[in-house]
Design a protein that fits this description.
single chain; two-stranded parallel ribbon; two-stranded antiparallel ribbon; 6 strands
Length: 573
């Protein structure tokens, strides 16, 4: 029951916070900041499940395990607080923290949908999705090793923190409230963890089981959620009253998870279900038609590549404003004032000479104030202070020291830059802050804050397959009218993606960047391969009808050059 409860809580949480695709922030630290609220909730969830598991473990343990709150005294001795119970629960809290850190590091919330790679000319796609049972069986050794590692790390870190820092703090806190529940000695000291070997074995086994339960729940959810969107061997929208309408709503859904599965279903329909595919061409009663809406949604994903690349380009430098030449004009005569000039005499009349000491002091202060008040150009404190500082520098300091003082801001900036570069260069401490070229390329080509790789690839492949099959199945010829625009959008997106990989400059923090990385960005290459494959399918099917669908010889040559990769090689050269 406890196992089902903990697994259910974790799966419900993942259902709410799962992210389709990998995070595409520019650095690992940005990924952490982006999901900080989710991470805090995960930490609370792990704490709760660890506390629940520890209490059930203690409750189900035999009496000789000595995991109860108190150690019963013999004869007249009063009961004593049991330190083993405190330490046992504390290690489970450390395990929850370790699991939360691992959850963030491994990005356990992500759901990786398969990217469909199909060779040109293949008529039907055979499902290559591994069954959930097979996935879990394959990952079982990995989960056991990971759970054992986390149990060992939790015990090592926990016992160190407990003995060095928190032993007496936790003892005093627990004793403070348990003495009102149990009859304990008035003064008590930590009773120790004896027998220690038994304690170690019980903790390692219990924490291993809990960590394995967490990993198993996560693996089960990931395996089952990434299965094909089919129901009884048919597309999941087949049972709907309006199958194509439901599909279109999914393709245009605001949630990325729903949109990802909708495009996956579109690819399955386009490649494996001929009868359902024909309805996309023949359903013209909808306004706009089903083909028009589906092709528009697919093109939006393809054109999104070009939009993201354009957004990353440097904005043009603002042009200088035109110089305005003053136009000479005749001077305007100024009328002389008709009123008398203001008097500059003191307002107050002359006062009699002071007689007492206090009057003389007041007279002196007043004359000083009047002198500065009537001065035509009163002194400015800031400028006077600068003059004084300059005089002191020239008088008391040597010339070399004065020059060092003036150069100090630049020196500080240089030294700070060196420290930051050294910190970022450190392989262990600086990696969370490095903005690598691969992360930048995936964010631009595949989208952010999570990669849309599966969506873009499915949209490209589906659109290309629908275009090819329309030669035999489109009764109205509506697809042929859009071939020119589809080819142009794919060519533009392919050129922009390849151009970005070749010309984009790495960030200054990517200190280990090499030119070979430009061609080794896996997710970006998957999108480029999909665009090339889609263009190759369309050009192969419509080459002999090029003039009829509006494709010029220049456009055909450019598309074929991109597909063959010659333009990419020329850019690198």
């Amino acid at each position: 029951m406890v196992r089902h409860m903990i697994s259910g809580i974790r799966i419900l949480k993942r259902t709410d916070k799962s992210l389709v695709g990998t995070r595409t922030t520019l650095s690992p630290f940005q990924s952490f900041l982006q999901s900080i609220s989710f991470n805090i909730m995960w930490l609370g969830l792990y704490f709760f499940s660890a506390w629940l598991f520890s209490e059930i473990s203690i409750w189900s343990a035999p009496d000789d395990a000595k995991l109860g709150w108190v150690l019963h005294g013999i004869a007249a001795d009063k009961d004593k607080l049991n330190e083993r119970a405190i330490f046992f629960r504390f290690i489970f809290m450390i395990l929850a923290t370790v699991q939360a850190v691992w959850h963030i590091y491994d990005d356990c919330d992500k759901i990786l949908l398969p990217v469909h790679k199909v060779t040109t000319g293949e008529k039907e796609e055979v499902s290559s999705i591994e069954s959930p049972r097979s996935q879990i069986r394959r990952r079982a050794p990995e989960m056991c090793v990971s759970s054992a590692s986390k149990a060992g790390i939790s015990f090592g870190v926990g016992i160190t923190i407990y003995i060095v820092f928190l032993r007496h703090v936790l003892w005093d806190f627990t004793f403070g409230w348990t003495r009102y529940v149990f009859t304990l000695r008035q003064f008590s000291y930590p009773t120790g963890l004896h027998p220690f070997i038994d304690m170690i074995l019980r903790i390692l086994f219990s924490t291993f089981l809990l960590s394995l339960l967490w990993d198993f729940s996560n693996a089960v959810f990931s395996a089952y959620i990434a299965q094909e969107p089919l129901k009884k061997g048919q597309p999941i929208t087949a049972d709907s009253k309006d199958p194509n309408g439901s599909l279109i709503r999914g393709l245009d859904h605001r949630l990325k998870s729903a949109k990802s599965f909708a495009f996956w279903e579109l690819w399955i329909i386009a490649s494996r279900f001929q009868d359902r595919r024909k309805t996309i061409y023949s359903d013209i009663d909808r306004q706009p038609s089903t083909w028009t809406q589906i092709s528009t949604l697919c093109l939006r994903e393809i054109q999104g590549i070009s939009d993201r690349v354009a957004a990353t380009n440097d904005a043009p430098s603002p042009s200088k404003p035109p110089e305005v030449t003053p136009v000479e004009s005749d001077p305007v005569p100024v009328k002389q004032p008709v009123v008398q000039p203001l008097k500059s005499d003191p307002i107050t009349a002359q006062t009699p000479p002071p007689k007492t000491r206090s009057e003389r002091v007041g007279r002196l202060v007043g004359s000083f104030a009047k002198q500065h008040g009537f001065s035509p150009s009163p002194p400015r404190p800031f400028q006077e202070a600068q003059k004084a500082i300059g005089l002191v520098e020239r008088t008391l300091l040597p010339a070399a020291r004065v020059q060092d003082i003036h150069d100090m801001p630049e020196t500080i900036r240089t030294r700070t830059s060196g420290l930051v570069t050294g910190f970022v260069k450190n392989r262990f401490l600086g990696w969370p802050f490095r903005q690598t070229f691969a992360r930048k390329a995936v964010a631009v080509i595949c989208g952010a804050p999570a990669a849309r790789t599966s969506i873009v690839v499915d949209a490209t492949r589906s659109l290309a397959r629908l275009c090819v099959e329309s030669l035999r199945e489109d009764p109205y010829g509506n697809v042929a009218k859009d071939i020119k625009g589809i080819v142009a959008a794919m060519v533009t997106a392919l050129k922009d993606a390849q151009g970005f990989l070749v010309k984009s400059k790495p960030h200054w923090s990517d200190l280990y960047f090499t030119e070979s990385e430009r061609t080794n960005v896996e997710e970006a290459n998957e999108v480029i391969d999909a665009l090339k494959g889609g263009l190759q399918e369309i050009l192969g099917a419509f080459a002999e009808y090029a003039s009829g669908v509006g494709l010029s010889q220049k456009e055909l040559t450019e598309a074929k050059t991109l597909v063959s990769g010659k333009e990419m090689k020329e850019k690198r050269g």
